[in-house]
Predict the 3D structure of the following.
Amino acid sequence: MSGAMESFAPVTAAGIGRPVRVLLADDQHLVRTGFRVILEVEDDIEVVGEAADGERAVAMARAIRPDVVLMDVQMPVLDGLAATSMITAAGGPDGPAVLVLTTFDRDDYLFAALSAGASGFLLKNGTPEDLVEAVRVVARGDGLIAPALTRRVIAAFARPGGPVTGLARRPTAAQPAALTQREYEVLELLARGASNAEIAAALHVGEATVKTHVSRVLAKLDLRDRVQAVIFAYEHGIVQPGG
């Protein structure tokens, strides 16, 4: 997975000049300790709590309001996917971002995590640099997901009866017509799995401009992240499977 995430310079949480506050949720003490050691080396990240089961993770997320929750999938009492759903539902737009981590590269875990509102999905066999970068990305709130992950979702969505159907289905307050022509073009490229760099090259603009357009698309269509933008585009006929 190394190199797949789009890279950013270190950031502080929400741009308010303090470290990103992270809650670790994993039933293995050694794993939590490893994550803590990796993250606390960084000046802009602070581990503020640990939970050994999903129920405790939900309670701690409500109590200490971290910026990011690192969530294991398989945990006792309450599994990580159910805990993710409860945290994202209770937190709303200003609640913690959940980054799901698992040992198992399984599509059912991936789609269930996204359906539960996770902002990212990371395998535990990645590098420490992957973990640190993923925490910074979801803390920023840009909803950025590795292009390879987006393309897996597209491939599944394009299959008849694939598991993505209904993942982010919701009554839509804003129709695609609310977008400018350039924003519509950005949405179409997003739906084809293009990274920010690829969109910038296709439209002959800078990556900073692309980030601005992506943020406006998500805001106007009331979408959480790039994956939901992909699904929105397919559900509304902006792109077609195999197109």
